[in-house]
Amino acid sequence: MRGLRLVSAALFLATALAAPPATADEAADAFHAAVAGAYQHYREAIHYYETGNSDLGELAFDQFLAGWKALAARYAGNPPPAYAKDADFAETLSAIEAKAASAAGAAPAEALLALKPIRGDLAALRKRSGQRVFSDCVDAMNAAMDRLWDYRQKPPDARRLPAFQAAARETAARYRDCLEQAPPALRETAEFRRMMEGALASLARLEAATDAELIVSLLRELRSFDKLIWLRFG
């Protein structure tokens, strides 16, 4: 048996040595996958805290914090090659962990104040190293919708209608970008396509709308799509 174990160990070592090292792209993909895994729980925590479900919010938050701690421990001292030139890489991972830790045990409103900036921290981390993932497309889409949402409190009159229609077209363009740029496996899922195509249909109606009541109704409909798409796929 001992001889068999030695042979097995030797074969394992030979296989490991023969295996090609991960490429820079593969290392970046692995890091992005780890971030995405933690970020899913982050989005859930934000959603539940915003909608008043503290119990589920705390559960999602605990999962995010645990996932981020594991990610920071793995990568802070060993960044993927794509991030190796970023002098602030380790500091950013640590800062995100500190922000998350400061939200532990806090009331939902206070937790949201600590957690919400993390979304921008992650985007800035990628941007500094010239990295882009689907989440960045969703961020741009959400930002366009935020600008359009400003019209809910004061629907456009005839004078402001051209600017409003331009904002609706810009938002629709960001939605189309995300539909086209989504990973193939995601792009073909029924839920994703239903949400994206539903939002685009509402945007087409919104661009043609002139009635204030209809505009507000369509904006509320779009806001629901926008938040759900970020929650599920952002």
Structural overview:
This protein has 234 residues and is mostly helical. The protein folds into two domains: 24-128; 134-233, Four Helix Bundle (Hemerythrin (Met), subunit A). It has eleven helices and no strands. It is globular and about 55 Å long. It starts with a helix and ends with a helix.
Write the layout of secondary structure elements.
Layout: H1 2-18, H2 24-50, H3 54-75, H4 89-102, H5 108-115, H6 117-128, H7 134-149, H8 161-181, H9 184-187, H10 190-208, H11 212-233
The quaternary structure here is single chain
Number of helices: 11
Find the count of extended strands (DSSP E, 2+ residues): 0
Q: Judging from the principal axes of the Cα atoms, what is the shape?
A: globular
